[in-house]
């Protein structure tokens, strides 16, 4: 019982840190402002008067990973050269429960040094990832993890409920370490009318994407977990409705952390603009272009977008027109701006498998033209 309470308190702690550190709307979560990036919790077994410098060095490294998005930041920059005395940047230091220390560092001072060293800093506004996790226990009990408690969909109770909560704890901690905002679904009546355990377990993209629409996210992580570790756990990611397989492994907690780390790299590659002056290129394919007027409307819309420097028509075939767009914003902002058009509807290609080895997981955006005249 004590262990169960300990797990519950840990989960509440991670959720509280996450919520305080983000400006969250309960449902509309396209992106959030991460305000707790410069506060970390570190395990400690020393007294406050006996704290070693290594504690401050570890806190600095954790924060640098969050604000640059680079998990191996120590291989990219000489941390000790840039920050020879991390203790000087401490704004707040306090001992908290469970032998931990909460340390807050000076964001302005750290960012000034990074900018002078030409190190790019990731914006605090970051896209939210919605996480659907279906868990099978003993082949009988089935559970969908929710934003509060797990929802049991069959069986009397999940025999390894503590383990299931621990999975949630690990995921929150891994996401917090990488500075990635996440949330779990409500799994309320509204959700359960749109999606079932079988839909998640079977990886049915239509149902997953449809049920996720109420949360207004473009990044969705799906986990199919067996807590017997006899068969593989499957982790799948949807970005802009394109599907990519992240990882297949038996080990539960390790695979969940690795899935978050891969997710973080994908988010970083697609939403972190490394060079604000670099002109990016993206193909935009629009189907349903059956008239000169429809082409004119699309061209007029693209011309009105301040974030697009220029565009050209690359090809016309059948009812499809392919444009090449030139822009200097991140792909997320470009995609959302195009999606804002009342005349364009995003095309969902659920079965397209994406290679996560490339820096960008897609080469083009695909939309269809909605002719309002019937």
TrEMBL record:
Pfam families: DUF2066 (PF09839). This is DUF2066 domain-containing protein. It comes from marine metagenome.
